[in-house]
Amino acid sequence: MQIKEFTAPASCELAEGYGNYGPRVVIRSIKAIQRGEEATITYIDLLQPTALRQSELLLKFQFICGCRRCRTMPQAYVDYGLQETFLTYCHENYPKSLTNYYRESAVARFRDVFDSTIMEYMEVGDPVSCCEKIEGLLSQGMLNQHLEGSRGVSCMDFRLSPLHHLSLNACTTLYSTYKIRASQSFDGKQIHSFDMSRMSAAYSLLLAGATQHLFLYEPSCITSAATFWINAGESLLCLVRSSFWNLCANCVLENHLPISNLNCPRCLLMEKFELDFSSIQTRKREFDAMS
């Protein structure tokens, strides 16, 4: 998509509405866009903390937002959650300023690795490598030893909160990438395709749950929450309609297993949930009795 260049209007023209086109726009998508397919471009990502949104609006559009969310002081719970990180490993008590310095450096390093991984995937087209790198970073965290100026400081392990805006972006990438891997499975690999669809559905549910939680505290997140719930529903429908279930039924008939010994994965999952729930209730009663 190309849009003609133009001279930036004055602030009064921006306030009144300026009927002209913007500069050239380049769309980057990890999913192929078909000819004639609609593509929605948002001016700002609402799943970013306030400081990033304000910086982006000012840099790109010379605009200072004065909405309730941007004016809230101190920052609202949603913006706190969108930039929350965890320090999971540290033997010594360091000054808060030093810890915050490494925390900011770790977040910047997370962002650089995510961006480079997505760029590599778009150039090379290897979804397996993309998934492994992003999942490894989310699960293993970022050690301060990988950051500049950490000599003489004991090991610190920083990890992103599931609500962190980088975590949400990473899960969005994983959801799409696993969906692509499921569609690329050839005939005779129904199990692999099913596993990829299951991973895609899992990440879509994680995104839907996270954005739903944010929406309960910030109404402006309703569009993101609705979009992720739609994606989660479509992923679950795709999972239910998978030919893998027919493959399981055929294997059962061929092996002549007795019906009494059969349990589908969904029933087994429900049984596990009931056992876990019962165990939690038992521990709760024991705790109440002791207290």
TrEMBL record:
GO biological process: methylation
This protein's record includes keyword Protein biosynthesis: no
Its EC number(s): 2.1.1.354
Enzyme type, top EC level: transferase
Single annotated GO MF: histone H3K4 trimethyltransferase activity
Keyword Cytoplasm appears in the UniProt entry: no
Keyword entries, A-Z: Methyltransferase, Transferase
Matches recorded under PANTHER family: PROTEIN SET DOMAIN GROUP 41
Protein name from the UniProt record: [histone H3]-lysine(4) N-trimethyltransferase
Source organism of the structure: Opuntia streptacantha (Prickly pear cactus)
